[in-house]
Amino acid sequence: MCGIVGYVGPGDTLEVLTSGLKRLEYRGYDSAGVAVLDDYGEMHVRKRSGKLARLVELLDDQPIAATGTGIGHTRWATHGGPTDVNAHPHLGDDGKLALIHNGIVENFAELKAEIDAAGIELVSETDTEVVAALLGLEVSRTGDLETAFRAVVKRLHGTFTLLAMHRDDPARVYAARHSSPLVVGLGDGENFLGSDVAAFVGYTRRAVAVEEDNIAIITPDSVRIIDFDGAPVSFEEYEVAWNTDAADKGGWDSFMAKEISEQPDAVANTVRGRVVDGHIEIDELTALGDAPLQAIDRIIIVACGTASYAGQIGAYAIEQWARVPVSVELSHEFRYREPVLTDRTMVISVSQSGETMDTMMAVKYAKERGVTTVSVCNTQSASIPRESDAAVYTHAGPEVAVASTKAFTAQITALYLIGLHLGRVRGTLTEADEAAAILAFESLPGHVAEAVATHEQIAQLAHWMADTRSVLFLGRHVGYPTALEGALKLKEIAYIHAEGFAAGELKHGPIALIDHGQPVFVLVPSPRQSPVMHSKVESKIQEMRARGARVIAIVENGDTLVLPFADDVIRLPLVDSIFEPIVQVVPLQWFALELATAKGLDVDQPRNLAKSVTVE
Ligand code: F6R
Predict the structure, then answer these.
(1) CATH of range 248-450; options 3.90.550.10, 3.40.710.10, 2.20.25.90, 3.40.50.10490
(2) Which of 6, 29, 434, 445 could form a disulfide with 264 if both were Cys (CB 3.0 to 4.6 A apart)?
(3) Binning pLDDT at 50, 70 and 90, where does residue 606 land?
């Protein structure tokens, strides 16, 4: 994880670095730090454990007259605890060079032995300081930062994005990537580096994605990209689709609240342009050709966390429309169990960030075995979509809060579109079903907006339940992964024990958890469309009620059947059954947010987490 930013140019270096770090703080907030040069060419480092605000205080107390070159880092701790001394940047070459790092250096012990043998004393417990020391040794040996930088990156095992600057080479920042993200921002007389475009989107929307095992060297007027052997690499720039407004809170108390409220647009924007002449048409899949899509006999969805629950929901729809078996696997489990893959398998990865290392490795594994890979991703030009045969972007806009919300509903939407596209190409989708899905997509943003409007009711409920220590979530069919997602949201931002269950599983064990007052959210299927499932869930509600549970029923408007057995009822608009998760999850997201708020917690930056999980 960790966020990195680099700058060369005539601008206010500290302002560029700290505003970039503010937007990257979602990647980690255990510590923050910057290194800059002053007018006399001296290197200055300021760094502090804790959130960026503490670094900004330090910079106010100990200002630096920075010239135009600097690097900044926000950390998610791996090697060494979240202390001031372990914060990046780290120094090498007797304090003349500064280095920041995102990733893990796996051969750190071996390299450290070399540093120890050279008599260099390290002050931190980090793998990064070892790299800084090694780079320092190479610079003294070769007298040239570029040669030294290339030599060092070739020796590192693991994952890294590294940024380095040196007092004797003051108008340059060097950056290398290996299995961690890196983008260049192209300015006018200034250039930028970042873990993602959020680092510099306040200054420029022209960007270049740096490819795997490449080095970028930026000066105010130039950008050069080379491979680890020094051979020049050509690159293309692209325009970043969103601006800083999209990445600000827009009047809400938290990014998470803003992002929950943006879900009608996230869904609408993901569908936009993909209904052509009354048919679902995803250009990126069309580009693969119909024959491979007709030939596939199995789909495996790989993802982690919230994205994996979106995958589980998507699997129901893809099987229903495209009549191909779909399994869903956690990315980190997938490749270590030697899955059976053939040239008729398709692997669909789902990732908001497009940088999740576990998912990236699963995609690489599949690709190496000749499998067609499709990425569902929210982040333009991220590593996973670039690694995949086709990228189907969700257009949810930047998601900043660590807990994923709008990306989740957009991911479900994208997977449904994929299911419909495959169904059409494979001839398994009836015209009536396609027309019904298109109609459903048209009304969906409005229905999601109605679900967003449950906010006040949920806020009250959460307020009354502020002391709750455990919450259960129950669902059936597509409601089951939705229940899992409701539980995950509560765990991650309110730090409350929560579990999601398939309603039919209750009697096989979990019902023993039900005690007097135990809150249980129940996602009730539509009685109009799924009367059988509705009555089965209704009987679960009665069984739990008989054992003292406090039942909070999420029902479609007009469902009166469960009213006698529910303590609280949250009413949602009528949608087709398969679309229920996209509206039902919204009150669960609000509940987690409001409960965390009632407990006085930081909903955007929950403890121990980071948004983009770029370590395995
Ligand atoms: C939960 C959450 C995580 C992510 C997971 C995958 O709110 O955000 O569970 O869903 O880490 O991240 P991406 O989608 O970026 O691959």
Answers:
(1) 3.40.50.10490
(2) 445
(3) confident
Residue 195 near residue 182 (C-beta atoms within 8 A): yes
Q: What is the pLDDT of residues 16-55, one digit of tens each?
A: 999 999 988 888 889 999 999 998 889 999 999 999 999 9
Query: How far apart are the CA of 305 and the centre of ligand 1, in A?
Result: 5
Ligand 1 pocket, residue 93 CB under 6 Å = no
Q: Which fold has domain 3-246?
A: Glutamine Phosphoribosylpyrophosphate, subunit 1, domain 1 (3.60.20)
Average pLDDT, the chain: 94
Q: Is the CB of 331 under 6 A from ligand 1?
A: no
Q: Identify the CATH homologous superfamily for domain 455-598.
A: Glucose-6-phosphate isomerase like protein; domain 1 (3.40.50.10490)
C-beta of residue 317 within 8 angstroms of C-beta of residue 323? no
Above 80 in pLDDT, residue 615? no
Residues 6 or more apart in contact with residue 286 via CB below 8 angstroms: none
Count H helices and E strands in the chain, helices first: 19, 26
- Based on the residue annotation, tell me whether 377 is a catalytic residue of this protein: no
Q: Whose CA is nearest to atom 16 of ligand 1?
A: 351
Cβ-contact 343, 293 below 8 angstroms: no
Q: What is this structure's pTM?
A: 0.84
